[in-house]
Amino acid sequence: MAKMRGAVVVDVERCKGCELCIVNCPQNVLANIAAQVNSKGYPYVYMKNPGDCTGCTNCAVVCPDGVLTVYRVKE
Amino acid sequence: MGELKLMKGNEAIAEAAIRAGVDAYFGYPITPQSEIMEYLASEQPEKRTGMVLLQAESEVAAINMVYGAASTGKKAMTSSSSPGISLKMEGISYLAGAELPCLIVNVVRGGPGLGTIQPSQADYFQAVKGGGHGDYRLIVLAPASVQEMADFVGLGFDLAFKYRNPVMILSDGVIGQMMEKVEFGEQQPRRTKFDEPWMLTGKTPDRPHRIVTSLDLEAVQMEKHNLDLQAKYKTIRENEVRFEEIACDDADYIMVAYGSSARICQKTVKLARESGHKLGLLRPITLYPFPSERISQLADKVKGFLSVEMSSGQMVEDVMLAVNGKVKVGHYGRYGGVIHSPEQVLCGFEEFLSK
Amino acid sequence: MELKDIIKPENLVYKRTECLTDKVLSYCPGCGHGTAHRLVMETIEELGIQSETIGVASVGCSVLSYDFMDVDMTGAAHGRATAVATGIKRCNPEKYVFTYQGDGDLAAIGTAETIHACNRGENITIIFINNGIYGMTGGQMAPTTLLGMKSSTTPYGRESALMGNPIKITELVAQLPGTYFVTRQSVHTPANVRKAKKAIMKAFDNQKLKKGLSFVEIVSNCNSGWKMTPVTANKWMEDNMFPFYPLGDIKVDGELVKK
User: Fold this and answer.
1) Which partner from B70, B151, B313, C45 sits 20 to 30 angstroms from C3, CA to CA?
2) Which helix (H) or strand (E) holds B67?
3) Comparing C-alpha atoms, which of B216, B203, B197, B195 is closest to residue C20?
4) Looking at CA atoms only, how far is residue B351 from chain C in angstroms?
């Protein structure tokens, strides 16, 4: 079975660091970036383990702020 | 010559609304104006013109239905009487703030509180000074006949759309309930083009989405909105004052009276002249804008003004402001649902003279 | 495979709907309002009805929803959204009309307007966000605040003898003959978001049938008002809100499916 590979693009300025995407990611791909904030002062999410992303879109679906764009390919 | 009918003032408003091509009426029953909605219901305006008629669950809901319909550029109206108009005041303030055109009819009854179902003119302050919260004005028309009840529906909507402002017809139980001959014009078509940039018609790709609101959280922006409103009200004051003068040319004293009180005062003018008083009558047709300038001019040549209202003295304050101390100003009126007679007004005038 | 090889237009599987404006949402981090906004706008995009839709914003946290939703909208006075929507829909029956209201707006100050619009069977869609608190004014008790729940006006917890009981307005409107579809959803997990989306889609699609009103409650969090992090608020919501406000359809195609 072909493995799905995904990628998440973060709109950093929209992110409020609420972590809902982080806890809803089945692959533990996402994390809030350490010691950095966006222009509004929020920490923001990034792909900590990009190799594990399957592009399932759960993170984007649950994100209240429309921060995430998701891409997916069959490897 | 249009069509002649014998009708109550309330019925005349309803018939005129259908003929003016009004899109929607939203109301709630209250004496002494329930005939407006009853007449509309019996006429089935949805069949005559496609006009929407809906009895709402409250005056509050009715005025907000007007707000919704007006947001889309429709000609929408409501009617009520004093306690019901108080309930509508929230919505009226929002309509004024969002600059939406509409027509509100107040067939005034005695107050305060539940008051009485008899006629009164005690809602003058509420109508012309704003009434709800915030710095706003309504255009206020005061019919003195069943004919004017009918005519002011079309005029009211013309002014409402010209200035994007709510218009109120401030009538009372006398004009609403009495029957008179009334002439109606031809049926006007309902509006079909909704092409003004404030009307909510659905966002198309060629334009940004439209928002109808009275809210702006930026104080400076809200001040600008208020300044724009005040500029609009100034234009209205400069262009829309309407009044009628009766026997003012040679008058020593002038009564100022509107609506049913003005009709009573016409008889008082006759009685006064029979007893040797040169008494005239100025009848404001628009209460906002008020004929202040004309009253100020007349104050240069008469000895005094008597404001005759079925209230404890409300319009008299605007007369005083217009006269600005040049001559004496008094008030006469029965109120709380009591209607003064021409003879009582004459007595009131003679007492005013002796002061 | 490198990320840059994945991030290509042909591989796109999810992006923010273009029926939302570019403005950054004014809501607190993790607030369900943002997700609910997005679902309504995704629905409008997918049904292709942006040019035929008129929305009604209410008073509360979502008072500025018209800044974010890229459709023609009007802002109603507190509680009056369904009356405003009635006026719009009656005069424009060909348009899709929806209200977006919170629990204070819809179930306290606007109860009469809500009940009667539902009872008349206005062909509109009501999106009702229930987070059990007044968010915008600073966390006061709402009609939907649970018994024992703390708010700034019930600092020792809501007590029924003193402050009455939380109101299940959704079950209430389901009893009225004018409602055609009544459901309660949430947007705190991906699975719930997908279910809520289906419900909202149905609620808009129903307007074509002219069979009555569609009412979608979304039980949501208020992290700031509840004084919790977004993640713990969602857990608290599952443990406390859902037992009292159970998720699922209540009335489908005009028939009660849950008592």
Assistant:
1) C45
2) helix B59-71
3) B203
4) 49
- Asked if B96 reaches chain C (Cβ–Cβ under 8 Å), the answer is no
Predicted pLDDT of residue B179:
98
Phi, psi of C244 (to 5 degrees): -90, -35
In angstroms, the CA B107 to CA B37 distance is: 13
Dig out the tokens for B340 from the structure.
């003064």
Cα distance between residue B76 and residue B186, in whole Å:
20
Question: Cα(B273)–Cα(B264) distance, rounded to whole angstroms?
Answer: 15
**What is the layout of strands, in order, in the sheet containing C96-102?**
B211-212, C72-75, C53-57, C96-102, C125-130, C213-219, C179-186, C248-252, C255-256
> Could you name the CATH architecture of A4-74?
2-Layer Sandwich (3.30)
Chain C residue numbers touching B72 (CB-CB < 8 A) = 54, 88, 91-92, 95
Q: How confident is the model at residue C169 (pLDDT cuts 50, 70, 90)?
A: very high
Q: Which domain holds residue B118?
A: 3-184
Q: What pLDDT score does A1 carry?
A: 62
Interval A12-69: pLDDT, tens: 999 999 999 999 999 999 999 988 999 999 999 999 999 999 999 999 999 999 999 9
pLDDT digits (tens, 9 = 90+) for C29-54: 999 999 999 999 999 999 999 999 99
Q: Are residues B13 and B131 in the same domain?
A: yes
Query: Hey, what's the torsion of the CAs at C91, B101, B30, B82, to 10 degrees?
Result: 160
Q: Give A71's contacts in chain C (Cβ within 8 Å).
A: 6-8, 11-13
Among partner residues C51, C56, C84, which is closest to B203 by beta-carbon distance?
C51
Question: Do the domain assignments include residue B237?
Answer: no
Given a contact cutoff of 8 angstroms between Cβ atoms, the answer to whether B229 and C93 are in contact is no
Tokens of C142: 């709402």
- In this prediction, the answer to ipTM > 0.90 reads yes
Q: Which amino acid, residue A75?
A: E
